[in-house]
């Protein structure tokens, strides 16, 4: 039976954000791996005309295309905002059998409690990078992102598929309590939460291979393969 993996990047991201993961999974001939650039994220594209519904419509078409091409088993991996879209298709499509959330938001983005906390944090550089990206694109575009999170966060509670939640311990964009909130609200009774030591918000941003990236990619692949081997190697922290 044909199996597909769909990788969805995050807000203001690109295919390069998960290039290492995509390349690693592509080596396994058991799956066909797909990744697409979300509307408004192509270089030179007019993001001013993009609304959050465009992302929903786009991902709907991607799933329908895979299904129409005969894929009966689809695994979805969503990074950051891509996790919201993954939760949407995971709650809607029967063909989606497993989901992986990587540093995904839930309910609302909390970029720290206030500006004072940001400046007091030694790792505030991550926030500055996020704000800089927003300011160099469009505030309205960022608001479309917040609308998406607000409108579809409840999809998590409808997911009854086997799910892996990965959260970087040094992520300064997504609060560390967020993955536990996602875990607690999932409908599925087959769910796993793992924290990634020493990792930040974006994990697979380069095609440059190293042992750490390959270890996390292998962990994800073993989850997708499932079975006793996965249950034996699952850890709360890697």
Low-confidence stretches: 110-119
The CATH architecture would be 3-Layer(aba) Sandwich
Largest sheet: 6 strands, parallel
Mean of pLDDT: 86
Radius of gyration: 17 Å
Q: Quote the beta fraction.
A: 15-25%
Q: How many discrete domains?
A: 1
The CATH class name reads Alpha Beta
Structural class: alpha/beta
Using the alpha-carbon principal axes, give the shape: globular
Q: What share of residues is helical?
A: 40-55%
CATH superfamily descriptor: Alpha/Beta hydrolase fold, catalytic domain
Widest beta sheet: strand line-up = 2-1-3-4-5-6
SSE order, as H and E? EHEHEHEHHHEHEHH
Number of strands: 6
Q: Examine the coordinates and then state which fold CATH places here, giving the name of the CATH topology.
A: Rossmann fold
Topology:
Layout: E1 3-8, H1 19-26, E2 32-35, H2 52-68, E3 73-79, H3 81-92, E4 96-102, H4 115-120, H5 125-135, H6 139-152, E5 162-168, H7 178-185, E6 191-196, H8 211-225, H9 227-233
Helix pairs in contact: 1-8, 3-6, 8-9
Q: If you had to describe this structure to a student in words, what would you say it looks like?
A:
With 238 residues, the chain is α/β, with parallel strands linked by helices. The protein has a single domain (3-233), classed as 3-Layer(aba) Sandwich (Rossmann fold). Helices cover 41% and strands 16% of the residues. The protein is built from 9 helices and 6 strands; from the N terminus they run E-H-E-H-E-H-E-H-H-H-E-H-E-H-H. The protein has a 6-stranded parallel beta sheet, sandwiched between helices. Helix 8 crosses helix 9 (227-233). The chain is globular. The two termini are 32 Å apart. The model is unreliable at 110-119 (pLDDT under 50).
């Amino acid at each position: 039976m044909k199996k597909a993996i769909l990788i969805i990047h995050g807000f203001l991201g690109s295919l390069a954000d998960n290039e290492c993961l995509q390349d690693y999974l592509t080596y396994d001939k058991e799956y066909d791996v797909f990744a697409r650039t979300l509307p408004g994220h192509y270089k030179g594209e007019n993001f001013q005309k993009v609304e959050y519904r465009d992302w929903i419509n786009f991902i709907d078409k991607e799933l329908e295309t895979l299904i129409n091409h005969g894929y009966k088993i689809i695994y979805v991996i969503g990074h950051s905002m891509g996790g919201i879209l993954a939760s949407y298709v995971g709650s809607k499509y029967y063909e989606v059998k497993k989901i992986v959330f990587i540093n995904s938001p839930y309910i609302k983005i909390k970029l720290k409690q206030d500006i004072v906390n940001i400046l007091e944090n030694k790792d505030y550089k991550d926030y500055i990078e996020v704000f800089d990206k927003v300011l160099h694109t469009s505030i309205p575009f960022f608001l479309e992102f917040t609308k998406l999170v607000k409108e579809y966060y409840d999809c998590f509670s409808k997911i009854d598929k086997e799910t892996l939640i990965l959260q970087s311990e040094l992520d300064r964009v997504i609060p560390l309590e967020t993955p536990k909130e996602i875990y607690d609200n999932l409908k599925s009774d087959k769910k796993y939460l793992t924290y990634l030591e020493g990792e930040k918000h974006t994990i697979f941003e380069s095609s440059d291979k190293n042992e750490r990236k390959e270890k996390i990619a292998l962990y994800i692949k073993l989850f997708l393969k499932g079975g006793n081997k996965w249950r034996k190697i699952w850890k709360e922290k890697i």
